[in-house]
Amino acid sequence: MTNKVLITGANKGIGFESARQLGHKGWYILLGARNEERGLAAVQQLKNEGIANVEWVQIDLNDLASITNAAAYIRENHSDLNALINNAGISGDMHKRPLDFTLDELKAVTEVNVYGNFSMIKAFTPILSKNQGKILHVTLPGIGAGSFRPFAYMASKASLNSMIRNFGYDFKKNQISVDIFGVMPGGIQTDLNDHMTGWMMRTLPEGTKSIVDVLTDGKSHQGKILSRSGMAGSLTKHLLKQVNIFSKNK
């Protein structure tokens, strides 16, 4: 059976690189993107690289109707879907102090990173449960390390991480055959951070490999938030590790 994955926000960055790496491993790629032109361009780029089994699916995490329509399309045409990578997200202004944020700015980030991901879980769990599927969320610690403290981004991801843990507990308790978890791949150079460089940052292919490795490791990570090495542990332990590294290199 061919593995089949839906990836949100897959026309660029981590989402696109995940599609590329999994496509080269023989996975069928459902490339989720809001914009048709950019989505189809990304599909064509992958096909130019020899990845034949790839198609665009319109998904906008700000638009519940698009999520519902995508789920209906996949239920009808790709009922064997066995993986979902919830990658799409927005950061808000990563340099603003907390008090400088407006409520509308905080809401905008939360609506995508929390409500959008919640809607994706609700819509696709019935499909994935029939195939003992996986839902992987690309995330980060909900508490800053060193000088990296993007307020709205961290607040939304803290909520997302809590949601992942609670869904994992519920799925296990109620014997829902979906493995849901998060992966914190660490600093990756993307347009989200203006391709930031430095000792904490990895290239896009390097960072994305952490995500792909966890998805394909054949293990259950139910309700866990994993570090970039694939090791499970509390967010506190992960954060302390990052702070210690930062202190040594300061």
Compact overview of the structure:
The chain is an alpha/beta fold and 250 residues long.
Superfamily (CATH H level) name: NAD(P)-binding Rossmann-like Domain
Spatial arrangement of strands, main beta sheet: 3-2-1-4-5-6-9
Rg, nearest Å:
17 Å
* Tally of strands: 9
Helix/strand order, N-terminal first:
EHEHEHEHEHEEEHEH
Average predicted local confidence, pLDDT: 86
- Tally of individual helices: 7
Major sheet size, sense and barrel closure: 7 strands, parallel
CATH topology, anyone? Rossmann fold
- CATH architecture designation: 3-Layer(aba) Sandwich
Please give a structural write-up.
This protein is α/β, with parallel strands linked by helices and 250 residues long. The chain has a single domain (4-249), classed as NAD(P)-binding Rossmann-like Domain (Rossmann fold). Helix content is 46%, strand content 14%. The strands form 2 sheets. It has a 7-stranded parallel β-sheet with strand order 3-2-1-4-5-6-9, with helices on both faces. The protein has a two-stranded parallel ribbon with strand order 7-8. Helix 5 (151-173) links the parallel strand 5 and strand 6. The protein is globular, with a radius of gyration of 17 Å. It starts with a strand and ends with a helix.
